[in-house]
Design brief:
- By secondary structure, the chain is mostly helical.
- 88% of the residues lie in helices and 0% in strands.
- The protein contains 4 helices and no strands.
- Helix 1 runs antiparallel to helix 4, helix 2 packs antiparallel against helix 3 and helix 3 packs antiparallel against helix 4.
- It is elongated.
- The two termini are 31 Å apart.
- The relative contact order is 0.15.
Length: 126
């Protein structure tokens, strides 16, 4: 009986961890695509639309990261550290959106680079 419960708990932790890794991969990919669309923003007429849509997708990916971190932490009883990281990242994404809407590229661009680096670092840790 105890072995079955332990096996079921381990499978749940692995599932939660897998979902968390997938969320981080998605977030990192959307941030990379935002960098590409920022380049298109400067060179094409449709770049602004593409960057705006990408911003919404990136923000959704950041929210998914928070959800995945909570789901990996709560049922499995793991460390709350990923939840703090994901929440901090969502806060950075919120600031990034506000800066983009306000057209403050002097802070928007470096913050985007920082966010991409942090996302790659989170991915490397998983």
């Amino acid at each position: 009986m105890a072995t079955e419960a332990t096996t079921a708990a381990t499978a749940g932790v692995r599932r939660g961890s897998s979902f968390l890794r997938t969320a981080i991969v998605l977030q990192t990919l959307t941030l990379f695509l935002q960098a590409v669309s920022a380049g298109l923003l400067l060179t094409t007429s449709y770049g602004e639309t593409l960057h705006g849509v990408g911003a919404r997708v990136m923000y959704g990916a950041s929210m998914l990261y928070v959800l995945a971190a909570v789901l990996a932490w709560k049922p499995g009883g793991g460390s709350p550290r990923p939840v703090r990281h994901a929440s901090g990242f969502l806060a950075l994404a919120s600031v990034q959106v506000v800066l983009g809407i306000a057209h403050v590229p002097a802070v928007h661009v470096p913050l985007g680079v920082l966010m991409f680096g942090l996302s790659v670092l989170a991915l490397a840790r998983r």
